[in-house]
Design brief:
mainly alpha, Annexin V, domain 1, 3 domains, two-stranded antiparallel sheet, 21 helices
């Protein structure tokens, strides 16, 4: 954007006094609305998003005069019926979530109001997995665990796959134990990254790990790496290993099964069990199952599902687990193919 400022009226200049550039941009995005603002944020760099987020979070309300002045400066006109009064934190959360997804938006929101730039770990999120792996290759497993837990799940899985296999189990185990990180510990890690990227970084207590994170990361590695890690985890902590496995493959993952495989799976599952399992399934999952049944059978299942009263969540989860067990057995037998894990199809 050019540094030249269009000539403003005296009233517009007065309205903008005391507002810096990021504040101007933040107010403009707020005036555009969540959807348009989200589309703009998608094309911005992480540091720019954070700067705008910090500016938005400091704005409680915006006068019509300020909006008019800013649009005179950046666009040239504005059409609004009243002053814009915003709950900026709520607006910011909705807009960032729509633009970046819940996880990335939450990460940025958690860092807003902190002094300095984005934390050093965030710079790794935009790097190629191999570059990240090279940086942490010789680091302590605890540092590797913190870094992987902070990355996007798919990226973290690819990074883990590039690290020595003998550290996989230790790293996954440490991720499951992560809950929060003390500011001093995370600051020390940020300083290491800061030296690489010449960034300033500070942080606050941040929740990043747990069973779900470990499961999602393992979902991103190859079958061989996953099997090796789970085998060792089983030896070290069978209960923890089972909890991770329960999170790794969920009922909605059956969406990856092709039509022929789904039809084969349905032949192995009782109708009563299927009805209970579908009570807690996503609409898309239900429709996929209906499509792979005869018209008459699908109609009967729809009717039975509609007539079924409330079912306890524990019963739904148990029914879904039983169906998943059948699916995994059929996958091992080669009867059906479960997507993901880098499977090759010819």
């Amino acid at each position: 954007m050019s540094d030249e400022t269009p000539e403003l009226s005296a009233s517009a200049a007065d309205a903008l006094s005391g507002l810096n550039g990021p504040a101007h941009a933040a107010i403009l995005l707020m005036a555009l609305g969540e959807e348009k603002a989200a589309n703009i944020l998608k094309h911005m760099e992480p540091g720019e998003v954070q700067t705008l987020g910090e500016a938005m979070s400091c704005i409680d309300s915006v006068s019509q005069g300020q909006i008019g002045g800013i649009l005179d400066k950046f666009v040239g006109k504005i059409k609004t019926e009243s002053s814009l009064s915003l709950g900026s934190r709520d607006y910011l959360k909705k807009t960032l979530t729509r633009a970046l997804g819940q996880e990335r938006a939450g990460s940025i929101l958690g860092q807003i109001h902190m002094e300095g730039g984005p934390i050093g770990l965030d710079s790794l999120k935009w790097m190629h997995p191999r570059a990240v792996a090279n940086i942490i290759y010789n680091e302590h497993p605890q540092i590797i665990a913190i870094v992987l837990a902070h990355l996007e799940r798919e990226q973290a899985g690819r990074v883990l796959g590039l690290l020595p296999q003998h550290v996989h189990t230790d790293v996954i185990l440490r991720i499951t134990k992560l809950d929060t990180i003390h500011p001093d510990a995370l600051q020390e890690l940020n300083e290491i990254i800061q030296r690489l990227f010449e960034e300033n970084s500070q942080t606050e207590l941040t929740g990043i790990g747990g069973i779900n994170v470990a499961a999602e990361i393992l979902n991103g590695v190859s079958k061989d790496d996953e099997a090796a890690a789970l085998e060792k985890l089983e030896e070290m902590d069978p209960d923890l290993c089972q909890r991770i496995q329960d999170k790794m493959f969920i009922f909605d993952n059956l969406m990856t099964v092709d039509d022929r495989g789904m039809q084969a799976l349905l032949r192995e599952v009782s109708t009563d069990k299927l009805i209970i399992a579908l009570k807690g399934a996503a609409h898309e999952m239900q429709e996929k199952i209906f499509r792979n049944m005869s018209k008459r059978a699908a109609e009967m299942l729809r009717d039975d599902l509609a007539a079924k009263g409330p079912v306890r969540l524990a019963e739904v989860e148990e029914a879904q687990r039983e169906i998943l067990t059948v699916a995994l057995r059929m996958s091992e037998e080669g009867t059906i193919a479960l997507g993901g894990k880098g499977d090759d199809f010819v």
